Amino acid sequence: MKSSLKLALGLTSAISASTAVSNAAHAEDLTLCWAAWDPANALVELSKDFTKESGIGMKFEFVPWTNYADRFLNELNSKGKLCDLIIGDSQWIGGSAENGHYVKLNDFFDKEKISMDDFVPATVVGYSEWPKNTPNYWALPAMGDVVGWTYRKDWFSKPELQKEFKEKYGWDLGPPTTFDQLKQIAEFFQKREIDGKTVYGASIYTERGSEGITMGAMDVLYSFGFQYENPKKPYEMEGFVNSEKSVKGLEFYKSLYDCCTPPGASNSYMGEGVDAFKSGQVAMHMNFAFTWPGLQKDENVGGDKIGYFVNPKGPDGEQFAQLGGQGISVVSYSDKQEAALKYIKWFANKDVQAKWWSLGGYSCLNAVVKDPAFPASQPYAQTFLDSMAIVKDFWAEPSYAPLLQASQKRFHDYVVAGQGSSKDALDGLVKDWTQVFQDDGKM
Amino acid sequence: MLNRTAENVARATPEPLARKVRGISDKGLAWLFISPTILLLLAINIFPLFWAIYLSFTNFRANRPNEVVKNLGFANYQRILADQDIWIAMQTTAHFVFWTILLQTLIGFTLAWLIDRKFRGHAFWTTIILVPMMLSPAVVGNFWRFLYEPQIGLFAYAISFITRIPPTDIQMLSNVSLAPWSIIIVDTWMWTPYVMLICLAGLRSIPEYIYEAAEVDRASNWRQFWSITLPMALPFIMLAVLFRGIENFKMFDMVNLLTGGGPGSTTEVASITLKRQAFESWRTGYSSAFAIILFVAVFGLANIYVKALNKVKQR
Known about the structure:
The complex is a heterodimer.
Chain A: H1 2-27, E1 30-35, H2 38-54, E2 58-63, H3 65-77, E3 85-89, H4 93-98, H5 106-112, H6 121-128, E4 140-143, E5 147-152, H7 153-156, H8 159-169, H9 179-189, E6 192-194, E7 197-203, H10 212-224, H11 244-260, H12 270-278, E8 282-288, H13 292-297, E9 306-309, E10 321-322, E11 326-330, H14 337-347, H15 350-359, H16 366-369, H17 374-377, H18 381-388, E12 391-392, H19 400-415, H20 422-439
Parallel strand pairs in A: 1-2, 1-3, 7-8, 10-12
Antiparallel strand pairs in A: 3-11, 4-11, 5-8, 5-9, 6-7
Chain B: H1 2-11, H2 15-22, H3 26-55, H4 75-81, H5 84-115, H6 122-134, H7 137-148, H8 154-163, H9 179-204, H10 208-216, H11 221-249, H12 253-258, H13 270-280, H14 284-314
Helix pairs in contact in B: 1-2, 5-9, 5-11, 6-9, 9-11, 11-14, 13-14
């Protein structure tokens, strides 16, 4: 009886102890919030190494892009404790810093000897700094991204098409270097029969609900000479946003939409673009670089069939590309900030960053992207590097959301619905943005 | 009766508590039972309403909790009423409400009238007709989006088969003229059965002897329809119009799923504008004012309509 009692007590204690240990482990689990996309799957894989090293478990909260901003900005605004770490969009940095959602990382970086000079400068400005171009850091550059283009190398190299193209346009069919060339190629492929299927010129961003058409139109407008404000006088937009060059740029984007996109592509963003390219509908495809690893591996359109090119030059030779990507931040409402900072420290490590790139994430660490072997490491690596060198980003002000909504409306009304002129759209945009900055007391 | 109930409750209750229950009056007991519901209603309906009214006079933004909240007086209301985009959204909403109600009432009443004939298999057909109404709006929105797809959609192929227009030219969701109709078609497809059900209840409530008397008076079928069927079913039809009117005034799910308010702002109804202002632009004070304006508009119109409905019922 005594021995069985001892056994029972022993078992009970053992169970209690293991439960306590497991509870303690769970209590230390970190939750990382991000968008539901391919790089997030790569991060899950990568983070297993962190758990192995630190004993801290990782949980993930991934939300589709269309709800990403709504969901996580709601979470931050309500001071929720769901996310310990968040990979927030580049435009959130101003609002999240000013509203106290993110932990300022300067002291931590100093203590752990993490230097922002070790990261690609555009990503530091875009993902980490607020106010911009000041050494105030709220995130570690986590996922470099930029809008670029993919094209069907196999179609471009068909001798009969090359011959016909040369006769029609007088230059060799190949990746375009200017937007004029891009449009000629798109027109050439529009409604053409290839391998028994009707194909179309290009897939571009036209989505209305979140940020799609703004990201696409800006990608073109920058190279046409669009500027957000007077470089010498902040928030002065008249003559910059609606300059003659900007008007021409938006007209070009509309003409590209009208002439050369697949039928019904009036609400197309990242997912729809990937679908159009993967299903062999389009010759060229505008999208963020994060889509390239998946496309490269695709059985039908990947491998030797796909090529990549940097956003082309505008009429005056200017060349820019829309910045994407995000930094990783510690949420100030988290009870596990210490563990979250451990993760950031681990993530900044060179070996981890190298593995991050190999798994399909886009590292922003100079040691990785400036490695001599980097350009040859993937077929799209050089295009990514070239694109990252010419990036520009949308407003990252605390009021980025109403600023974005205004451009979404103005651009969609003109480009897709065909209402008014390009000048009307940009004049209206100046009016809307002025109102937002006046409400903020910045003008 | 209430006394006996109170006694029964007291008997089934432990003694210390029972003493307290016996001391409560009938009215007190009634309040005791309904108070949880009232408290819940106050918490989830009345308090948010008054809170929204308060916010509508401020510059509050939910995404800037640390900012000082300023009282703006009626500035938000003035700005909304002077905003051309808001008026365009209201016109778009009125357009949807008008056409969906017209089509749903006409088709719904016709279907109810046919079903009321009690032909062979009418029960089976009633069930079939009701199927769209039983589906989730999210499912309906998503599968109609595929049906409308110009390259693979069955709708485009069916129209193309009839009209000989290439299916890729039938861009229901991308074309500025067709996009509003694409939503009207789906809403009508989904909610006509609901109108039919209410109209059917109205038709079944007409006593048979009235028709028998009309037969004796040798009234034609046409005359019976105009003099008996329609007037007696009218309160039910009006009720269906009221329900659908209120629902469609705040239509959100179908528009959001099918067009997201596009192309451009062609299908941007008031609820989509409200959502964008509140949860995308985070202008909480401004959007509260807009919500209050919408609430007053629906409440006012519904009241006028209910008065008209009561008059029709009293005739």
